[in-house]
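Last lecture ended with a question: if I hand you only a sequence, what can you say about the shape of the protein? Today we answer it with a concrete record. The protein is Glycosyltransferase involved in cell wall biosynthesis. Below, first the input exactly as provided, then the predicted structure, then a couple of comments.
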Amino acid sequence: MSDILIITSYFPPETGAASNRIFHLANGLEQHHFNVSVITPLPNYPKGKIFDAYKGKFRQTSTENNIKIHRLWIYASNSKNKILRLFAMLSYSFSLIWFFISNKIPNKVIVQSPPLLVAFTCMLFLRRKKRKLILNVSDLWPIAGLELGAFKKNFSYRVLERIEHFNYKKADLVLGQSNEILKHVMSLCPNKNVSLYRNFPDFNPPTIEEAVSNEKIKVVYAGLLGIAQGIYKLCEHLDYSNIEFHIYGAGAEKEKIEAFISKNPNLPITYHGEISRELLHKELLKYDLTIIPLLNRIYGSVPSKIFEYARLGLPMVYFGGGEGETVIRNYNLGWVAESSNYKDLNSVLNKVKKEDLTITSKTIIQKTALQHFNFNKQLNELIVIV
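The predicted structure:
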């Protein structure tokens, strides 16, 4: 049995795509007879506060699903203040260094990036000839930060670029969740060993049922209500003549969205709050269509929702640009609207008809997902190279 360590900033009981992705990876490796351990902060995402069950603890080690999980101290914060956000990342890095010094580290380590500084800490302190460092890149930073408007091309940005390059250089293998990520890594490190590792989900596909009949098309968004997703702006710009809009999730824009709904009671928008992933999957089956938005096109990003919703058989309208558009089109998963063009988005939504959203069409999407977005097949291919 081979030992392998996964280092991540997100892990259950935290919710969200990053947490789910790493959980499935850890669980899949354990089921393939790896001795898996995970290092992660004390749960705090997305609220930026340590969960009640973990308050007052400096560190906790537990075994869950035969996986040893080390939860380390972090200064939890989701503040918009860049100094506090930086301190939060550095606090976890300090905890990691302390852990590395006081514990034996396996010879195979998977490091999640971003955050860049956390990945840098791992690449700097764990590099040695006999150890294989695998960098799992889900988003390209600092490029993504620049496109989101969080960074400017100044001295700090150039420092982050150097850190990014260092991380790729020291990794023995780079996993990228999109072809754009791999292309970028190869542009910086031409001889780097890279592999595409998509964010495929791993859950039993449900039986597809007819959505509750309604004059309007029931459109749903479920996920993080953050700046990058732009759900508040979506609420402002949607044409509701053909649709009703349902929202699930939590995040920085939650209060703004609730205030908007309160001020516009005539609009068919419903905010359902945040629910567990298992319950969410059941709820999503009630809807006709889902929307996957990004406020701005982010190079390298392919939202994992694409693969999750396809497995549910849920048709999609993709509104984020980039490689995500290619996936939607190539596999006939729904419709694509031009990124940041709300006029085009409304045009697309107004063209969608109820007869396009039948059990038959949803079943075809689900079958496509089961054939092409197969978690176990992808994991088997990863194990060969790990």
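Comments.
1. DSSP finds 14 helices and 14 strands in the chain.
2. The two ends are 14 Å apart (CA to CA).
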